[in-house]
């Protein structure tokens, strides 16, 4: 079955550290890829998305993600994190054979001030 | 303002007492969906609807019902709630066929079943 894996369940970093959160999916066809962020007590918001074109996608708040098709990956990066980035991050995939979106289990990011 | 609304935001109930969580969107989206979020399990889809009068089971539909009589509304019904349905519930909507488009999420409903 198709799935989305997020390797890190809980990440703790200090402010100004660099961030990379892993996301891999299992599907050989065309995909659209998303990263959502959920700040404490809030709903999910779109951080960035990839559907075609340049595999390096830039999102809000300085985040970016790179789609590497050969590795089935869509890792999220930020060069210098801030305390306000403390949140849970979800990778999601839609596959061209149906209209369903599949979420990863999420990565809880905690930034130390 | 484009948004998805859910009510109530918080609900504590007892086993077996029927309840409904409402969801409404003002973006004229065809697709609506319900998820539950549990620690360590991420988001799991309960039911979804591609349009009015069209609903389908998601990954965890047991114990839930939905209806889509109007495009803007997609209520989630728990006929006989049980403690294992204690969770955080999100409603979401988007354009059908819009795989390049994002899902818009409601603010969430935290349900506790005693």
Summarize the structure.
Chain A has 113 residues and is mainly beta.
Note the overall shape of chain B.
globular
Instruction: Give the fraction of residues assigned to helices of chain A.
Output: under 10%
* Second-tier CATH architecture of chain A: Sandwich
Q: Looking at the structure, what is the overall shape of chain A?
A: globular
Output the helix-strand order of chain A: EEEEEEEEEEEE
Uncertain parts of chain B: none
The biggest beta sheet of chain B reads: 7 strands, mixed
Euclidean distance between termini CA atoms of chain A: 40 Å
Measured by DSSP, the beta-strand proportion of chain A falls in over 45%
Q: Any idea of the CATH class of chain A?
A: Mainly Beta
Question: What oligomeric assembly is this protein in?
Answer: heterodimer
Give the C-alpha Rg of chain B.
13 Å
Kindly report the average pLDDT value of chain A: 91
Distance between the termini of chain B: 36 Å
Structural class of chain B: mainly beta
The chain-level structural class of chain A is mainly beta
CATH topology of chain A: Immunoglobulin-like
- In DSSP terms, counting alpha (H) and pi (I) runs of 4 or more, how many helices of chain B? 0
Descriptive account of the structure:
- The complex is a heterodimer of chains A (about 110) and B (about 110).
- Chain A is mostly beta strands.
- Chain A has a single domain, classed as Immunoglobulins (Immunoglobulin-like), CATH 2.60.40.10.
- Chain A is built from no helices and twelve strands.
- Chain A has strands spanning about 5, 10-15, 20, 25, 30-40, 45-50, 55-60, 65-70, 75-80, 85-95, 100-105, 105-110.
- In chain A, the strands form three sheets. In chain A, strands 2, 5, 6, 10, 11 and 12 form a six-stranded mixed sheet that branches. In chain A, strands 3-9-8-7 form a four-stranded antiparallel sheet, with no helix packed on it.
- In chain A, β5 and β6 form a beta hairpin.
- The relative contact order of chain A is 0.33.
- By secondary structure, chain B is mainly beta.
- In chain B, about 0% of the residues lie in helices and about 50% in strands.
- Chain B starts with a strand and ends with a strand.
- Classes of the chains: A mainly beta (about 110), B mainly beta (about 110).
- The interface of A and B includes residues 32 and 104 of A.
């Amino acid at each position: 079955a198709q799935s989305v894996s997020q390797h890190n369940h809980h990440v703790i970093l200090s402010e100004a550290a660099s961030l990379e959160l892993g996301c891999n999916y299992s599907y050989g066809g065309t995909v659209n890829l998303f990263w959502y962020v959920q700040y404490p007590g809030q709903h999910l918001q779109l951080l960035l998305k990839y559907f075609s074109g340049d595999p390096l996608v830039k999102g809000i708040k300085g985040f970016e993600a790179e789609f590497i098709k050969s590795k089935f990956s869509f890792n999220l990066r930020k060069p210098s994190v801030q305390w306000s980035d403390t949140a849970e991050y979800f990778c999601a995939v839609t596959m061209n054979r149906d209209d369903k979106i599949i979420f990863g289990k999420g990565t809880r990011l905690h930034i130390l001030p | 303002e484009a948004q998805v609304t859910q009510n109530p935001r918080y609900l504590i109930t007892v086993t077996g007492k029927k309840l409904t969580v409402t969801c409404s969107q003002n973006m004229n989206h065809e697709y609506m969906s319900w998820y539950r979020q549990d620690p360590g399990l991420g988001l799991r889809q309960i039911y979804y609807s591609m349009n009015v009068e069209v609903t389908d089971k998601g990954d965890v539909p047991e114990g839930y019902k939905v209806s889509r009589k109007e495009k803007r509304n997609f209520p989630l019904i728990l006929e006989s709630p049980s403690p294992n349905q204690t969770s955080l519930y999100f409603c979401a909507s988007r354009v059908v066929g819009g795989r390049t488009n994002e899902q818009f999420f409601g603010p969430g409903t935290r349900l506790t079943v005693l």
